[in-house]
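Sequence, please.
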């Protein structure tokens, strides 16, 4: 039987999420990859155990995580029913709905019917009565935001979620979402955008909106699907994400210019006494508007290496300037 370490809260820093009373760990664990039905259950189990022992209390899921879709929630539910049963009140569990989950017009996008049905399915898969955060996973351009966010607010008012979140909304829509949810008596807790050294769009207004509105921010893909690691310094490994014909990272993304940037950023990281991945995570966390950074992990060793980014989070002006020169 798993028993969490007694000192699990001693080394992980926690930060208030926006203007709320909820504190999140500086590093959160996402179950997007490596925790589905096609993956080794015991490996995922070991990663989650180690994460909690290191102070990670926030576990981020979505209805379609797997593959197959839903299987990450099912596997996490198995752990909640056994290993983590005694620790439910120490965990922040999030899920989302917004991408394709089942066939037909009611299994995708942002209708009230889809979101609330999806949440019920997620709760059943995980075997719990509520999630801590329920997200609208993406903005539906064909559905009024009042309907989509009204469904999220209903989930909170029904006790099926404690907090409301959104993901992949632009700055303008985020400000509108804040107003809509505020008027519904369900303030927006958190936004989950894609943000990394290679994806800078949130800096063009979104982070300002979050700061002004008092909303937390949890960037996903902070390592740019593995590009901001040492994995591609010597080319494209046969078993890597970029070598696969499917997925978000393709060989075409690793241009000569991009590989040159990765190499130079790796040199800067070495000068800081960090790996490239550790520097990239610390770089995301440098902004005071960032509450926590969302990482993935395929092994306990990788998890431990990434969490070590917290040992060196400060940057000098010269270091930041050197990074910007490379990224330019």
């Amino acid at each position: 039987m798993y028993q969490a370490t007694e000192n699990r809260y001693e080394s992980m820093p926690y930060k208030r999420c926006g203007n709320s009373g909820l504190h999140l760990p500086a590093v959160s664990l996402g179950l997007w990859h490596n925790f589905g039905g096609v993956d080794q259950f015991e490996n995922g189990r070991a990663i989650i155990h180690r994460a909690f022992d290191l102070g990670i209390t926030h576990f981020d899921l979505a209805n379609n995580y797997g593959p197959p879709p839903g299987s990450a929630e099912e596997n996490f539910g198995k752990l909640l029913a056994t290993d983590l049963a005694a620790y439910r009140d120490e965990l922040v569990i999030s899920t989302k709905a917004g991408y394709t989950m089942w066939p037909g017009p009611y299994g995708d996008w942002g209708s009230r019917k889809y979101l609330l049905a999806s949440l019920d399915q997620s709760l059943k898969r995980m075997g719990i009565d509520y999630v801590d955060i329920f997200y609208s996973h993406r903005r539906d351009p064909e559905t009024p935001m009042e309907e989509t966010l009204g469904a999220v607010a209903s989930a909170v008012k029904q006790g099926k979620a404690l907090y409301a979140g959104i993901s992949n909304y632009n700055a303008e829509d985020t400000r509108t979402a804040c107003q809509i949810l505020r008027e519904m008596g369900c303030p927006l807790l958190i936004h989950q955008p894609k943000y990394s050294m290679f994806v800078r769009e949130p800096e063009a207004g979104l982070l300002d909106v979050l700061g002004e509105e008092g909303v937390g921010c949890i960037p996903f893909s902070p390592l740019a699907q593995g590009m901001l690691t040492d994995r591609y310094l010597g080319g494209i490994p046969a078993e890597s994400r970029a070598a696969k014909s499917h997925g978000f990272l393709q060989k075409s993304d690793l241009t000569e210019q991009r590989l040159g940037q990765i190499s130079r950023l790796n040199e800067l990281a070495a000068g800081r006494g960090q790996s490239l991945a550790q520097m990239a995570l610390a770089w995301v966390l440098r902004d005071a508007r960032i509450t926590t950074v969302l990482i993935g992990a395929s092994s306990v060793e990788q998890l431990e290496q990434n969490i070590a980014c917290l040992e060196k989070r400060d940057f000098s002006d010269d270091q930041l300037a050197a990074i910007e020169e490379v990224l330019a």
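The chain has a mean pLDDT of 95.
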